[in-house]
Design a protein that fits this description.
With 439 residues, the chain is mainly β. The protein is 13% helix and 53% strand.
């Protein structure tokens, strides 16, 4: 029994010594072949035994391998990989020299499209911005505003700091035609012009034409701003929300019938009164009663439906409604004032593509702007209403004989309805009404 134990003990010692004789240490350095500088952090791997190491700060390495055929690969960033195969029977010291690798890549050309577009297009004084470009520019109260971004372009001067109104090359603020999907917007500002009526969630791009107006616009004085609605997602549903200092907005976007019918709905609402009243009361103590008796709010609603009727027919319907509301009511004196103003615009556009070079589109739009003022004091009441209402129909043929040429032909019908001011007053037993003839 004792002999067997000694036998096992000596067998373990003998096998361990045999294994030790099989392990051989190799060492060395890795150099740059050009300047003979050592390369720290170079990788040395043995491909057969699946082991490896890296060089030290002095470019030195030590690696223990089993006796026999070895395949060593040496690599370093920016250098050619070195492969070597040899038979290992005794400890050796090696030196490897790596050659820098020169990688030739094609040249990178950075080119702006805007100058070429202006030179190759008949539209002069035109600026086009996408929502991605607008998102990189400075914002007011944490929200991007397309009309304020246009004030940063050449030839445009803002009316007041932070205001959406602007002058284009000497023209007036009211001489700028603003279109939302071909429907005119007559008052494009909220909060006395500090906010524009355009919600960036529902816009794809905006185009400004400062001169050389096309005949398709019907002739204008100062400038034309085309705001194009966003395209709904045709594959899946999604939603987003944004919380701002003065207003918040939410948007839902998705496909009703995949790849055929999709929709987008966006809503924006302000809570300005809830924030400003507590802040302004201590500052304007003498006017604190004004802030406690007044309220202000605005909202915007955008809805878009896009439908692919056939492979050659496309229908898009867009709707916008925005409103401002101001109220003041002082119970002690009986003074009350209410002002309300806003836009409603809707449009539908059908496009038929005959070929890559020939298409036909038909569109119809409705636009309405209204302003209401109601006031009263001790039995005296006054109400006033003014507004504008437009109905438009447009048909257009587009022919592209060459990529550099485009021919357009079509017609447009516009029905304008102007309401300068309708006034109704009540003074005790007397009722007065001044209803102007609608033009």
């Amino acid at each position: 029994m004792k002999l067997s134990r000694y036998y096992i003990f000596f067998l373990i010692l003998f096998s361990g010594s045999l294994y030790a004789q099989q392990i051989i240490n190799i060492s060395g350095k890795i150099f740059d072949i050009a300047d003979k500088e050592t390369l720290p952090g170079a990788s040395i791997t043995e491909q057969i035994q699946k082991t490896g190491t890296t060089t030290s700060l002095n470019g030195e390495f030590n690696l223990k391998l089993r006796k026999g055929r070895v395949h060593i690969k040496i690599s370093y960033i920016g250098y050619h990989t070195l492969d070597t195969i040899f038979d290992l029977y005794k400890p050796i010291e090696l030196s490897f020299y790596l050659q820098q690798e020169i990688i030739q890549i094609e040249e990178t050309v950075v080119q702006a499209n805007a100058p070429n577009t202006r030179l190759g297009s008949t539209e002069t004084g035109m600026t086009k911005l996408s929502m991605k470009e607008i998102a990189y520019l400075p914002v007011l109260f944490g929200e991007s505003d397309p009309l304020k971004v246009l004030q940063l372009t050449p030839g445009i001067q803002s009316g007041q700091e932070g205001n959406t109104g602007f002058y284009v090359r000497g023209g007036g603020v009211d001489q700028n035609l603003i279109l939302y999907d071909d429907a005119p917007i007559y008052n494009a500002g909220h909060l006395m012009g500090f906010y524009s009526v355009f919600n960036t969630d529902a816009i794809s791009h905006i185009k400004l034409v400062k001169s050389g107006f096309s005949a398709s616009y019907g002739g204008r004085i100062s400038s034309i701003i085309e705001v194009n609605s966003a395209e709904p997602n045709t594959e899946k549903w999604g939603a987003s929300a944004n919380l701002g200092l003065i207003s918040s907005r939410a948007m839902i976007n998705g496909s009703i019938i995949k790849d055929r019918v999709s929709t987008l709905v966006s809503v924006r609402k302000t809570y300005l009164g809830l924030i400003l009243q507590p802040l302004l009361k201590p500052v304007f103590k003498k006017s604190s009663s004004f802030f406690s008796s007044s309220s202000y709010s605005f909202y915007d609603v955008n809805a878009i439906i896009s439908a692919k009727l056939t492979n050659k027919d496309r229908l898009k319907i867009s709707f916008y409604s925005g409103n401002d509301n101001f109220n003041f009511h002082k119970k002690s004196s009986g003074l009350k004032t209410a002002m309300e103003w806003g836009n409603v615009a809707s449009s539908a556009k059908w496009v038929h593509v005959f070929s890559d070079r020939f298409s036909w589109d038909v569109s119809g739009s409705f636009s309405q702007y209204n302003f209401y003022l109601d006031g009263g004091l001790s039995g005296y009441d006054l109400a006033m209403h003014s507004g504008v209402e437009d109905i438009l129909f447009k048909s257009r043929l587009i022919w592209i004989p060459h990529p550099a040429h485009k021919v357009k032909a079509g017609g447009e019908y516009v029905d304008h309805l102007f309401i300068p001011n309708d006034i109704a007053a009540n003074a005790g037993e007397y009722d007065l009404s001044f209803i102007n003839k609608r033009l």
